[in-house]
Amino acid sequence: MTAASPAARERLYLFDTTLRDGAQTNGVDFTLADKLNVIGLLNRLGVDYVEAGYPGANPTDTQLFAQKRPSAARVTAFGMTKRAGRSVSNDPGVAALLAAEADAICFVAKASAFQVRVALETTEEENLASIRESVAAAVAAGREALVDCEHFFDGFKENPDFALACAEAAYQAGARWVVLCDTNGGTLPHEVEAIVARVTARVPGSHVGIHAHNDTEQAVANSLAAVRAGARQIQGTLNGLGERCGNANLCSLIPTLLLKGDYAERFETGVSREALAEIGVVSRTLDEMLNRSPDRHAPYVGESAFATKAGIHASAILKDPATYEHVPPEAVGNQRRVLVSDQAGRSNVLAELERLGVPVDRADPRLARLLDEVKEREALGYAYEAADASFALLARRMLHSVPDFFTVERFSVKVERRYNAKGEMTTVAEAIVKVRVGDEVFISAAEGNGPVNALDVALRKDLGKYQPYIAGLRLTDYRVRILNGGTEAVTRVLVESTDESGARWTTVGVSPNIIDASFEALLDSITWQLLRSGAPG
Amino acid sequence: MTAASPAARERLYLFDTTLRDGAQTNGVDFTLADKLNVIGLLNRLGVDYVEAGYPGANPTDTQLFAQKRPSAARVTAFGMTKRAGRSVSNDPGVAALLAAEADAICFVAKASAFQVRVALETTEEENLASIRESVAAAVAAGREALVDCEHFFDGFKENPDFALACAEAAYQAGARWVVLCDTNGGTLPHEVEAIVARVTARVPGSHVGIHAHNDTEQAVANSLAAVRAGARQIQGTLNGLGERCGNANLCSLIPTLLLKGDYAERFETGVSREALAEIGVVSRTLDEMLNRSPDRHAPYVGESAFATKAGIHASAILKDPATYEHVPPEAVGNQRRVLVSDQAGRSNVLAELERLGVPVDRADPRLARLLDEVKEREALGYAYEAADASFALLARRMLHSVPDFFTVERFSVKVERRYNAKGEMTTVAEAIVKVRVGDEVFISAAEGNGPVNALDVALRKDLGKYQPYIAGLRLTDYRVRILNGGTEAVTRVLVESTDESGARWTTVGVSPNIIDASFEALLDSITWQLLRSGAPG
What is the per-residue pLDDT for B307? Predict the structure, then answer.
């Protein structure tokens, strides 16, 4: 591939199947409202096609296609080609597709002689006829037609003539796109490139698409290999959702297509540079909707995608970010993070302080003390790279000051397992906390579903004048690890918190006593919330 | 590439850097004990090299290399080449590497003229001299030498002569391996293939390695592209740990190399088919050690890698698994997940019972009930794969019987933080446990450094006639994870125990209350110890 002037760039089409193949993900269920939200996200991004579901297969999808949905991307209905042994006009599946309020219809058809024989139990001729007649019916009904050639690559390896005949049948019947599917996900990039080249010798590449799965962790590479061999449509999903190991991840593919090497020079897509800078938000919004923890290591969009831990790397990054960044994080709406840990140097600490908004003078001699303190505390079990809010508090305490908003004078927690009045074995947890806020003293008690929960509820029950500042605070994760084993074991607790604005922060506590460690992390979380929300000291 | 007879297969070397580059992962901290465990896992798998750390960079790694570690894989120490402006014999970093108890030394050296200028602030000549002299010093000290050519691909694009000069300098000075590093992770597979081919025209491919990062989600594809261009060593990590988006994932690469297409035909590695079938266990053991949730969508080893949700796929799978599986799940120690009564699940349970010494008849109808029970309890949060002793107890209870050695009638735990008589803030934890052993009742109280420790000590203080059997029991690890998040969150506790014989077992407890969950795991541990030491029922 060689460089081309912008005017001569070839158009590459993006087809999103988050709502269809992505809905096959173990643990993922979209409501109708979810689906409409995702259609919105995909339009914000600028993909060309949204495969929104399978009308007739379930009530949600049937309802979705019952009315026209506003979308710049072409809303696509997925379904099977007509069954063998019946006419297309007499096939309820095809009828449901034709009745669906969709811009395009994507038929799935087997392109493997083995599959036709074993799974469909029909003949190759019947299979070809189903493709031709179904596509013709969609075109006659004024719809754009696509054909997903299922098992195309495995089918090609076993019987190339039949696989090619399926692709040609679809194209000749009028399909806008003939999509080559690596349904089982086992095909390797060099195979994809060679096989797609064989197809584009028969069907114009401008009508060929690729649908890759991640079963060898190469769905992205397979998609790009197909493009190199001439394919001009890529099917994928947000965050790589999809059956088994997922589909090709559009959140990785889109930045590569727009930012990297000869793809950016040779192709254009419907995604603008401005939309690209929102891809991180799109990715996280989907995770939030599905209540999945974002993959912090995800390429481009992950929290750690531009994070550096090693001290030698950090000092180079501060000299020139291009030394350790393959693309600028801002281009994909992400940010540089320099992690603080016992492997970190001064540069890591400086960069992290800047990100956290803690003002610091590079020449301040207390910086060296802070670095020593971090190393000493990490040797005790603290993990500041995972606990940004605790690090920010530590730094503010050493470099500036943090108000003593309140002090805890004592607390006690009790857990008891015993028979209750009905003779059932039951466990109760309760906590009492005594807090001083200025001249006032508050004693609060609470029950909880465990000692830490009881302590958390009691602690946040009444902080006097600070209560409004912490009203929206919520614990979202709690992790415990015992360090060093044996008799000198200490417990490290990480607490993740959030508030109504969606801000998220993590704090750490370390102690031989899990309750003490949890309490320390809870206190840091509340103090951080008071500090960041501007509570008066 | 064409097929080769087994005798003519080329050897491909695997270099694991989980303990070095993997230690750069955001949120990952290995203790010395963790590192020794991982060395064990990697030997079980059969990799050729284990890069265990960076002696001198932090106390853990210095301690690790202070003595010879038993390992079939070559234990490798990582560090920098000598600094510019000083002799190799006068460089403390190189001295630490030469003093390290390691089989091999992997030097990292810049191979980019830009990096040499901007990050190192030295000259190209100095950089080449550092490579030559450092390698020569390692070879003279009787160590195998490797050179990680940092930023090789970016450096090559900008100044191919200098990048190649670095690679050649390393090879000519006697390095066994010249490793081409895509340090920033932004190079694409077609670029890797073209550039590696340029290197193998100058340095024999049998001395060239590839070190890829996953910043475009193509670390696996890049590694394979390098092999296609002649490289014969792959560097990667378990579960793709590593800085930012991670390194090439050996848990994806190894199955592909052993099972797929022409890689399996053309190459051999140190990993046997038997070891391959344990790769899933290796992957999960590492996650468990680091207290990370396994990625259920991970290729080959993920819980969902062979799971089918779509009805049309499931019926085809039942006709012939090859219709929807690219490799047999058993080959990588995984299992098909379609139906509850599937045979793979049954054989896994049988194999595990055999391993744990629980006698069972293959035709016993209660096996199916046990399988259902395991699935139901795992859905509640139990993790029997990690908790062998709890699984063995569950199986024995359902297939045979387990004596009620003792019953706990009630317990209570109290944790209190308050000022002591000297005016110091102090935290005390104490527990009371009432146990019935036959006709005798024992009430024991104990203090501990935390509530679980207090409960454990009180529980094991006096079990009457069973006391001699549990005298050597000791808790060695304790892990907690919150599952499901939100209001329905439950806590899962894993407890690892050991006794004087060195036997080691893990038990699990699940409850909304962490104390209840911990208590359940403690009870299982004691019961298991009584059972295995032949205590009378």
Answer: 81
Residues in chain B within 8 Å Cβ distance of A27: 296
The full set of domains in chain B, from first to last, is: 11-271 (3.20.20.70), 406-462 (3.30.160)
Question: Which residue among B244, B305, B512 sits closest to A306, beta carbon to beta carbon?
Answer: B244
Q: Which residues does chain B have within 8 Å of residue A304's beta carbon, measured at their own beta carbons?
A: 25-26, 244-245
Chain B residues within an 8 Å CB radius of A83? none
Among the partner residues A189, A304, A410, nearest to B189 by beta-carbon distance: A189
Token couple for A462: 């009444």
Q: What share of chain B is helix, strand, coil (3-state, %, to 5)?
A: 45, 20, 35
- DSSP class of residue A157 equals H
Q: Outline where A8-68 has alpha helix (H).
A: 32-45, 59-64
Neighbours of A205 (CB within 10 A): 19
pLDDT in tens, B125-181: 999 999 999 999 999 999 999 999 999 999 999 999 999 999 999 999 999 999 999
Full DSSP string of A394-453? HHHHHHS------EEEEEEEEEEEEE-TTS-EEEEEEEEEEEEETTEEEEEEEEESSHHH
Q: What share of chain A is helix, strand, coil (3-state, %, to 5)?
A: 45, 20, 35
Q: In this complex, do A415 and B218 lie within 8 Å of one another by their Cβ atoms?
A: no
Rounded-to-integer distance, Cα A118 and Cα B365, Å? 32
Q: Nearest-CA residue of chain B relative to A429?
A: B513
Q: Cβ separation of B417 and A326 shorter than 8 Å?
A: no
Packed helices B92-99 and B124-140: angle between N→C axes, nearest 10 degrees: 30
b/e string for A36-74 if b means 16 or more Cβ within 10 A?
A: bebbbbbbebbbbbbbbbbbbbeebbbebbeeebebebb
Cβ atoms within 10 Å, residue B227: 25
Query: Which residues have C-beta within 8 Å of that of residue B523, sequence separation ≥ 6?
Result: B408, B459, B509
For A312-363, write each residue's pLDDT tens digit. 666 676 677 777 899 999 999 898 877 666 555 677 778 788 878 888 887 8
ipTM of the prediction:
0.76
**Which three-class secondary structure state does DSSP give residue B314?**
helix
Q: Could you list the beta-strand ranges (E) of B284-325.
A: none
Tracing tokens 């590593």 back to the chain, one arrives at B242
Q: Is the dihedral of CA A4, A9, A13, A18 positive or negative?
A: positive
Q: What is the DSSP string of A137-150?
A: HHHHTT-EEEEEEE
Round to whole Å and give the CA distance between B483 and B492.
7
Helix (H, G, I), strand (E, B) or coil at A260: coil
How far apart, in Å, are the Cα atoms of B244 and each of A305, A335, B210? 5, 12, 18
In the chain, the amino acid numbered B513 is N
Share of chain B above pLDDT 70, in %: 93
Show the CA angle centred on residue A187, arms to residues B259 and A266, nearest 5°: 140
- Residues making up chain B, counted from first to last: 537
Q: Given CA atoms A364, A366, A372, A375 in this order, what sign does their dihedral have?
A: negative
The distance of B511 to chain A (nearest Cα, Å) reads 9
